[in-house]
Amino acid sequence: MQAGKHFRHIYLAGELVKKQIQKKTAEKTTMHSLRSR
User: Fold this and answer.
1) Cα gap 34→37, rounded to integer Å
2) φ, ψ dihedrals at 11, nearest 5°
3) Where is pLDDT greater, at 28 or 2?
4) CA distances, 22 to each of 25, 32, 33 (Å)
5) What gap in Å lies between CA 35 and CA 7, rounded to an integer?
6) Nearest one of 17, 19, 22, 20 to 9, comparing CA atoms
7) Which of 3, 9, 37 is nearest to 29 (CA)?
8) Each residue of 8-36: pLDDT tens digit?
9) What is the DSSP string of 1-37?
């Protein structure tokens, strides 16, 4: 049971990182499109 809990924690942390990366990428693309205009 402890292993399952640990795995879930790692999974949730990974999802959080993914969201943060997507957010950063989105910000980068919006900044880029604003500059190129």
Assistant:
1) 5
2) -60, -45
3) 28
4) 5, 15, 16
5) 42
6) 17
7) 37
8) 999 999 999 999 999 999 999 888 887 77
9) -HHHHHHHHHHHHHHHHHHHHHHHHHHHHHHHHHHH-
